[in-house]
From TrEMBL:
This is FtsX-like permease family protein. The keyword Membrane applies. The chain crosses the membrane at residues 328-354, 375-402, 408-427, 455-473, 485-505, 538-562, 764-789, 810-835, 870-891. GO terms for cellular component: plasma membrane. The keyword Transmembrane helix applies. Keywords: Membrane, Transmembrane, Transmembrane helix. GO terms for molecular function: transmembrane transporter activity. Signal peptide: none annotated. It comes from Streptomyces sp. R21. PANTHER family: ABC TRANSPORTER PERMEASE YTRF, MEMBRANE COMPONENT OF TRANSPORTER-RELATED. It comes from the Bacteria.
């Protein structure tokens, strides 16, 4: 073992530039590999927490309650069941019952006693909107002093020991309850008793919640603010009454037994959102199910009450989140697998190029008696000295850059990258030098035939790619539990295309070699000959380029499709760049003022009767009236059912021509039929045009007619469809007035990105595509740098034979052009093919619109090819390859020929 270290140190000192390049490559790759799973965890956890936080605490809190203690118990036992000390001890045990990862937020969780029903109180000074008395609920919840500040008066206290016979108690109310119900400090409310005189409740204080949006106050919203309840009466109108809550001290809870409110005990566990993680979703569902109707509930019944019940909507919220994640995750996996494949190819190519550069050295060691194990062991040690610290450095950088997320997956990814970087050079050397070689023949791409082993490997990949494409087309990425083969489908398509193109690449070179030989100049023929003598090691760079280009095309098409879907859905929701709508007709001055606003191009007034009834029946169909010329321009500009304006022109003494949706046209045909409008007037229409979409009305049912053919009242516009650039929402709302609803297309589009799961997935996708493109460029640079010494020596020798600098530049550019063209054309072609093959199985609705899947445009969520994503990466590769070749020729020309012609210049 002693000779290894000096040999390793000597080799590292002999090529410091190569050593530094390997360190940078391994560190960067390890950092990206380690950061990816933590970044995914971060946006998935943020999406889960946002989903739980945006849902009301009434849905997310796990609520356990027990009914009023039974009448079979003694009065003291019933009162003791409502004692605050008893409830506190039970609450502590309930908290322990919750299984991890379900963790209760102890600050917002609560327990107490409340009346099951709000009781009508007779006090006449309480508000009665329609004559019905105000109803009051009593609640004795723990921790009022910790969750509220006293605004006036003081907190209530219990005088002595409260029992079912207690006649008077104290209570507090929130500021909102006091304002709405006209309650003041000192007010007395009489709650009806059960077979006894009313319970007098004296309000001693008005409080303000410290955290009104917290679960303590929002799990039971009535504690914080009163509610106006509507009940139907004998007529067609609705009666209303107010319902509020009085906050009693916990020690006064037994007094509720003397009322008709049937007090129930409750224990409320608010989830701690900070501890929720997406990877624990299945365990979290199990913990909720256990507490809601499983072993956890049975344990809670053992130390509370046998009749305890539990309920929560948290499991439904988690299910909705899981559905959203299952639709987004596979798309991210596709981008990640593509980038990972390119990174692996680059690492293998770096090791292969290093082995090729040192082929003579390793062959000499083997010829002088060096064992295969000894040589590969030294190469492994030499690489590990650089790769292991670089991998650790990359892992540390990833952990600092993404501080949250699971560390296990990050470490595993960095270790995998480091191991691959360490093994690439020794394995390549072991395969190439397993037998002692004194001399190897030419390995030109146009001469050497592929081996049987390579043919078998290519056929195996072809079968895998076909299976993956078939699976993705039939199951789609929205299927939950999609496997890795489906995620690798675009990558495998690119890999197969690369292998096929490498096999076909020699054919045009052979065809072009003979015609270029007849040309007068030597540059064309020599460049074709040089391109044909390229080593077979160029398979790896081409594989990296095609895989990266395919992934970039696929990823760019996904991102473009997501943006297009959102734009289309937002346009369907508004009908224009902005939509101003009111329940009543808009003044004529409103349209004029908006038309003169900044950025406004055109304003199209539309009268919409949503309750129009064709043939005077019960079925309603929205009917829109608009000026045919202006409305046709709007439909054509937005692409929502363009039609000729002349088709809706109002004829004299004839039914109004109408544009209808396919469903309406199928029901009513092309014969004239009457339509009763909301104001009671009638109009006769005849369907002459059928369109799937229209700007004024969204949905599958609509009619559009000439507004001039409607009555004076029905023709008054209720909506304004505004087109323009950079519209000012504030100015539009000011011009529209308080009674109008103003919706901007840009705001509607932004509303579709309502989850960190969406935005995080898009960022990860874009980063993965960018990283794949960077690795492709790196692969190209590695290949060109490896060939740089040979090309420099060639130019030096040719210049001694009379080759000019301009001819040298053309020679290197033409030599690099065939492979660059092959990569560019092949990448664009395979990217297009991958999108076309896999588009039936890709549904962008989930990642584009999240929960608003009902707004998905018809046929607008399927993946389509994006021209820019296809052509821009391919052209970049072409420009980069030729630019590097030209730059190398220019630099070689400046340095002169002495250094390149020295003996022993190649290692």
């Amino acid at each position: 073992m002693t000779p290894v270290a000096p040999w390793v140190r000597t080799r590292l000192r002999a090529a410091p530039g190569v050593a530094c390049a390997l360190v940078l490559l391994v560190a960067l790759t390890a950092a990206l590999a380690a950061a990816f799973p933590r970044a995914v965890d971060r946006y998935e956890d943020a999406g889960l927490r946002r989903a739980v936080e945006e849902a009301t605490a009434r849905r997310t809190t796990v609520q356990l309650w027990a009914p009023e203690p039974g009448a079979e118990l003694r009065q003291r036992q019933r009162e003791a069941a409502l004692d605050p000390d008893t409830l506190k001890a039970q609450y502590t045990k309930v908290l322990r019952t919750a299984e991890r990862p379900l963790t209760a937020d102890r600050d917002q969780s609560s327990y107490g006693v409340r009346t099951a029903a709000a009781l009508a109180v007779p006090d006449p000074w309480l508000p009665r909107p329609s004559g019905l008395p105000t109803r009051i609920a009593l609640a004795a919840q723990n921790g009022l002093a910790d969750h509220a500040r006293v605004r006036s008066g003081r907190l209530p206290r219990a005088a002595g020991t409260a029992t079912a016979k207690t006649q008077q108690v104290e209570a507090a109310v929130t500021a909102e309850t006091a304002k709405t119900l006209r309650i003041k400090v000192g007010s007395v409310i009489h709650v009806p008793g059960a077979g006894r005189p009313p319970l007098s409740v004296t309000v001693t204080g008005i409080v303000e919640p410290r955290k009104p949006e917290g679960a303590y106050w929002t799990t039971q919203p009535l504690l914080r603010r009163p509610a106006l309840i509507q009940v139907p009466n004998q007529g067609n109108d609705m009666d209303t009454y107010w319902q509020g809550a009085l906050l009693l001290p916990p020690a006064a809870a037994p007094a509720m037994l003397g009322t008709a409110g049937h007090p129930l005990r409750y224990w409320q566990l608010a989830p701690d959102t900070a501890t929720l993680t997406a990877h624990d979703l299945s365990r979290l569902n199990s913990a909720i199910a256990s507490l809601e109707a499983g072993p956890g509930l049975e344990k809670a019944r053992d130390f509370t009450d046998p009749s305890v019940e539990a309920s929560t909507d948290l499991d439904d919220i988690l299910s909705q989140y899981a559905q959203l994640r299952s639709g987004i995750g596979p798309l991210v996996a596709v981008a990640a697998s593509g980038t990972a494949t390119v990174a692996v190819v680059v690492l293998l190519m770096a090791g292969g190029l290093a082995a090729d550069r040192r082929r003579t050295e390793i062959a000499l060691l083997r010829a002088r008696g060096g064992s295969l194990r000894g040589v590969t062991g030294r190469l492994l040690a030499e690489t590990a000295v650089l790769a292991v610290p670089a991998g650790a450095l990359g892992l540390g950088a990833a952990l600092l850059a993404v501080p949250t997320g699971r560390r296990t997956y990050a470490v595993a990814a960095a270790v995998a990258v480091t191991a691959l970087a360490c093994a690439a050079l020794p394995l390549r050397a072991a395969v190439r030098h397993r037998a002692v070689q004194l001399h190897t023949g030419r390995e030109d791409l146009t001469v050497l035939r592929p081996s049987r082993r390579r043919t078998v490997a290519e056929l195996t990949l072809l079968v895998l790619a076909s299976a993956a494409v078939f699976a993705l087309r039939n199951r789609g990425t929205s299927e939950q539990g999609g496997d890795e083969l489906v995620a690798l489908a675009p990558v495998l398509v690119g890999v197969i295309a690369a292998l096929v193109l490498v096999r076909l690449y020699p054919l045009p070179l052979r065809r072009l070699a003979r015609p270029t030989g007849r040309l007068r100049g030597v540059v064309g023929h020599l460049s074709m000959a040089r391109a044909g003598r390229t080593s077979v090691s160029t398979v790896l760079p081409l594989l990296a380029l095609l895989t990266a280009l395919t992934t970039a095309a696929f990823g760019g098409s996904v991102l473009a499709g997501v943006a297009d879907t959102r734009d289309r859905a937002a346009l369907l929701g508004t009908g224009a760049d902005a939509r101003i709508e009111a329940t009543r007709p808009l003044p004529d001055a409103t349209a004029t003022e908006i038309r003169d606003g900044s950025g406004v191009h055109e304003v199209t007034p539309v009268s919409i009767a949503y309750q129009a009834k064709p043939q005077d029946g019960e079925e309603t169909v929205p009917l829109a009236g608009a000026d045919p010329a202006a409305y046709a321009r709007l439909a054509g500009r937005t692409g929502l059912g363009a039609f000729p304006a002349a088709g809706l022109k109002r004829p004299a003494h004839a039914p109004l021509p109408a544009l209808a949706s396919p469903a309406v046209a199928e029901r009513y045909g092309t014969r004239p039929f009457p339509v009763r409008l909301e104001d009671g007037s009638h109009v006769t229409v005849r369907i002459v045009l059928v369109r799937t979409l229209t700007p004024a009305v969204s949905g599958t049912d609509f009619l559009v007619v000439d507004r001039a053919g409607l009555g004076v009242r029905a023709a008054r516009p209720t909506a304004l469809l505004v087109t323009g650039d950079h519209l000012d929402g504030g100015a539009l709302r000011k011009a529209a007035g308080a009674g109008a609803d103003v919706r901007l297309r840009s705001q509607a589009r932004a509303a579709y990105v309502d989850s960190p799961l969406q935005s995080g997935a898009e960022r990860i996708y874009a980063a993965a595509v960018a990283a794949g493109a960077g690795y492709a460029v790196l692969a190209l640079l590695l290949a060109l740098v490896r060939a740089a010494p040979e090309r420099s020596a060639l130019l030096a020798r040719l210049r001694t034979m009379g080759l000019t600098r301009a001819q040298g530049r053309r020679l290197l550019v033409l030599e690099a052009l065939p492979q660059a063209l092959l990569a560019a054309a092949g990448g664009a072609l395979t990217g297009w093919a991958a999108v076309r093959l896999l588009s039936p199985g890709i549904d962008l609705t989930t990642i584009a619109l999240a929960a608003a899947t009902g707004d998905a445009p018809p046929g607008g969520t399927e993946l389509r090819t994006d021209t820019l994503s296809l052509l821009l990466p391919a052209l970049s590769v072409l420009v980069l390859a030729t630019g590097i070749a030209a730059g190398q020729a220019w630099w070689t020309g400046r340095r002169g020929s002495v250094r390149e012609l020295r003996a022993g210049d190649s290692r």
